[in-house]
Amino acid sequence: MDRLEQEVHELRGEVQKASQCDPIPVKYADLLPILLKKNLVQTLPLLGCRIRCHLDIKVLLQQQHLAPHSVAAVRPITNVVQDPGYQPQFRPSQQQYLDSHSVTTVLPIMNVVRNPGYQPQFQQYQQQPRQQAPRIKFDPIPMKYGELFPYLFERNLVQTRPPPPIPKKLPARWRPDLFCVFHQGAQGHDVECCFSLKIEVQKLIKDDLIPLEEFGFEYLDDTFILLLVFDQFKTKSTSLTKTTTIINRQQTQFTLKCFNGNPTQTCPNDHSPIQAFHQDQDPSSSTSTCPEHFRWIHEDLEPWKSTGITREMVDSGENISQLRIVIKQGKVYVETYGDSFQTRATFTVWGIVQLLRLYPGRVPDLELLFETGDRAVVDKKRYEGPEAVTPPPIFSYCGKNEALDIVFPDWSYWGWAETRIKPWEKVLKDIQESNKKIKWKDRIPYAFWKGNFLSNPRHELRKCNVTDQHDWNARVYSVDWNEEIDQGFKNTKLEDQCAHRYKIYVEGISWSVSEKYIIACDSMTLFIKPRYYDFFTRSLVPYKHYWPINKQNMCQDIKYAVDWGNTHPEKAQEIGREGTRFVEENVNMKLVYDYMLHLLTEYANLIRFEPKIPAEAIEVCTENVACSMDGIWREFMVESMVKSPSDTPPCAMFSPYFIYDDVK
Q1: Given the DSSP bridges, would you call strands 186-188 and 323-328 parallel, antiparallel or unpaired?
Q2: What SS3 class is residue 536?
Q3: pLDDT digits over 34-81, tens only?
Q4: How many domains does the structure of the chain reveal?
C-alpha cells in the first residue's frame, strides 16, 4: 500500500470516529482559533487533504472529553515530539501552493521539540535560506474587513491609498477577479486579504479607536465567549435543536455591506433575515402586554372586518397614495405612484425593512398602499350610506374622526435628516439627559413653542406672544429653516428646548411629528385641541398626560394653565412627568416595532387575495436603501439600523374595544 492509499485508509477510519463525536453548538471553524489562542490544541502537519484538519479537531475534542460546559477539561499540549520515522512526501506543486497561501492567523506552536533527524523532503527545492520576517499578529475582529472599512473611511480613521503597480511576474495569490477598495479599486486582491488595511486596523485597535460596540458587538475575551456559548448550551435546553436556535439568535448580527462587491446597490442573495434566522418563539410566550393604544389597531381596521380586503379595494386607492408595498417571503418590494416630500418615503420603507430584521419570519405576506403626505385622505363621508362601497385601505401617518386612514408610525422614528433630527431612540436619550440637567422648579415659568407658522392655529398662537400690552405667559419663537440650514441647525436642537416648565403643542397643516419630542421634555404639555392624531396619542388622558387648550380662547387658556401650574407646581410637574413617562414606557422603539408588527399582522389576516409583486416594483433591503444614500442620510440609517433579531417576543395584543369597556 503506497502513501496515498495509506492516507485514504486513515481518513476513512477517522470519518467513522468523527461521526460518533458529541455535537457542539458552534462551528469548528469558529472554535479552532480560540482553542489555538489558548494553547488548548496544536495544529497537525498538512497531508494535502483539507478534511484532515476538520476531522482531527473533532476527534481531539472527543478524546479530551470536552464537555459543552467545561472548557477547562482540555489541557495544554506541550513538548510535542514528532515521530522520527515520519517523512512527509511533499511534491513541488504542493510546496508552491504553500508558499503562495501562507496562513497568518494560526498562532505559532510553542515548546515543540523536533527530532534532529527530521528533514523535510522539499528542502531540495529551496535555493537558499531566507530570513523569516517577524510575523504580525492581527487581533480578531467580529466582522469582515469589508464591513468595517466604510465605518472607518466615513470617520476619517483610514484613508484610501493609490493602487500599487502591478508586478511583472504576478504572484500566485494575485486574483484578477478581486478589487481592493482600500487601494482605490486596485486589481488582484480585496479588503479581506489586504495586508496594508489590516495593519491600519491593528493600529486603531491598539489605540482603542474602533468602538466595536456600535456594531452590536462586545469585544470580550475569547475564553469568556467560549464559556458563554457552552454554558448556554448546558442551561437553556436539553434539546440540541432548540439550544442551537437560541444560540444562533443571540449570535446573529446584521451589518451594512456597501463596499463588498455591491457597486449597483442591489440586494445580496442572502440579505433576507428569514433565510439566516428563523424565530421559533410562540406568540403566546410573550411576557409583556402591549400598551393600551395598541387597541386602536382594531378600530382602524374595523371598516374591513366583515368584508375582508380584496384586490379591488386595494387597487381603488392607487390615485390617493404614493407607495405600494409588498412583503413576500420576508422580502420587501416597493412600487411608487408619486413623489413624496423630502425622504419621507425612503425612511418609511427603511423602517419596514428594519422591522423584518428585528422579527424575521414573523411578518406575513401582504400588499398595502401608503400615503406619505401630511393629511388623512380617506374621507369617511364618501363611504357611508346604503349605496356606499367599501373604502380602500390606505396607510397614513395620521388620522382624524372624519377619515378612515390606517395610522402607521411616521418616518421620523428613523430620523428626519433634512432638519437634522436624529432617530427617535437617540433623540429620546438626549432629551432624557437634558431633563436631568434642569430641575423643574428651576425652569423658566412660561409656556414655550418654536416652529414655523404654516397653519391658522399657529398664526393664532403667535398672537399669544408677549407684547408691551399683554403677557399671556407664552413665549413663541419663529424658525426660518433656510437660516437654520446655513447655521447648521444649532438653534433647533430638540434637547435644548426643554428649559421651560410648560411646552405648547399646536398642529401645522395637520398633525406634527413634534408631538413626541414635546411630551418627552418633562414639562407640562399644553395641547391646543388637535384635529388629527397619530398612532399613540389617542390613549393620552387630559389632565393626566397633558393640559387641554381651547382654540377659541387660546391665549386666555394658556395664561390660566401657566398661572395654575405656577400656583400648584407639584401637580403641574406631575402632569409633565406622567406625559413623559407615557412616551418613555409606551413609545420606545421596541414598542414602535411591536405596533408595526401587530398592525401589519392584523391587516394581513384580512387580505382575501394572494399578494403579488408588481412588474414595476423593486426589491428593497438595508443595502440598496442605505448604500445609495450619503452624508447624514446614511448616518441616520446606520444609527437606526437593527443589528440583530429581537431576543424577546413582541408584546401580547389587547382584544378590541367593546361597548362595555366605555361603560366601565
Answers
A1: unpaired
A2: coil
A3: 676 666 776 665 444 443 444 444 444 444 444 433 333 334 434 444
A4: 4
